[in-house]
Design a protein that fits this description.
The protein has 29 helices and 2 strands. By secondary structure, the chain is mainly alpha-helical. A two-stranded antiparallel sheet has the order 1-2. One of its GO terms (biological process) is RNA modification.
Amino acid sequence: MSLPAYTATPVQLLQLPKQPPLILPLPNPSHTTSPNPTHPNKHSFYLEKKTQKPIDPTVSWTSSISHRCRNGQLAEAVAHFIRMRRAGIEPNHITFVTLFSGCAHFPSKGVLFGASLHAYARKLGLDTNNVMVGTAVIDMYAKCGGVDFSRLVFDGLYVKNSMSWNTMIDGCMKNGKVDDAVKLFEQMPQRDAVSWTVLIGGFVKKGQFEQALEWFREMQLSGVEPDYVTLIAVIAACADLGTLGLGLWINRFIMKQDFRDNIRISNSLIDMYSRCGCIGFARQVFESMPKRTLVSWNSMIVGFAVNGHAEEALEFFNLMQKEGFKPDGVSFTGALTACSHAGLVNEGLHYFDNMKRIHRITPRIEHYGCIVDLYSRAGMLEDALKVIEKMPMKPNEVVVGSLLAACRTNGNINLAERLMKYLYELDPGVDSNYVLLANIYAADGRWDGASRVRNTMKALGIQKTPGFSSVEIDCDIHEFVAGDKSHVDAEHIYSTLELLSFELKLCGYVPENIVRESYEFD
């Protein structure tokens, strides 16, 4: 989209609608100070002069453009900007920042106009001389997927501030240029809490949780105090890694700072403790909250459900409604998960029906997945299959995979073979499904079937991803791959493992043959 040049003629200018004068409301005499009797007209003269002050047309037009951008009306904002230029009104830096921000919020719609607007800003020299405009251009390109253009604009800025640095780092992180983001961060002349949060939060969003925690430790050494956004990102990393020790340290840090009443931090702590298996700690955080939101209740309901406390999950689900909160899709996911883990088939179907009929919530794929899991855990595999076949949306590998796992538990090879056709269409490269099918064959003694699956994997070039486990000791994470002896204390670890295995056998533990055979297959 090209921008119109400034071609307004005197005739066109005369045809422009006149701006109405700004009329300030006169204050109520009962609420004002009486004028000085020696200068009876001083106050009225001041008001008269102020009411006669004309509105800057650029401010008026920019305000209208901003209103449209805030309401998601990017096309109308662009059209208004074009009318502004045709009217001969010159935009200022706020006009450009407003439009670039609007384009950034609607990448698919705004990228073409954003590029044209950048050309106009470049013509005026605003993208290099004005740090606000330059930063807005950087943000716009980054959110539209053109982070390389962002870097060109960033490098061309004559003066950079912390916001321009942070925006560029954030753009690199979100577009997968992690190394570039780290280099920029290290080149920053001065880093604030936002700078650290952008980097740490970027690693969390990329699933690189260990790196996020390492940079958080660097932040602590730097002396920069984290803000609540930083803490939320770090808590999320602890939740995904299961690093309870660091999570407890962060909780103590929060109690000493001014974040103890921050609802978002409390909700994050509830989620972290639940995912670390410490539902008791999660409940303590919940009960200490002076104010709770729907997210707080949902976190507890889901936490109880996934940790096997079905009764408490359903109790909180009902208590939440008594407290005046209406359940949403997440609430019902927690309730259905609780019913599934507890084998409450009829209760689960009742909640599913109420969700649709009473609460008017359209079930999503995770809700259908809960029903499939509900039937699967109860051994009602054909009912679970019917749910998959009648779902209004295409099932994903998680939904079908849960039924496939139930086939192994129930020894249903025929259904497992049918499900593999589903899974092959969804994602033929997932190794875990093939391994599971091979183990189902092996459990039934059908080694020819297990060998056939293994040959299929070789033909498709699918390799089994090595499984690994991790353990946290003194806030350090130690990872172990099957058969791994690279750890510095490997000799001591394996000797301890042999001792534990010996003691288990003395207690009567006998490993199943399927475990040995499956390990050989792996």
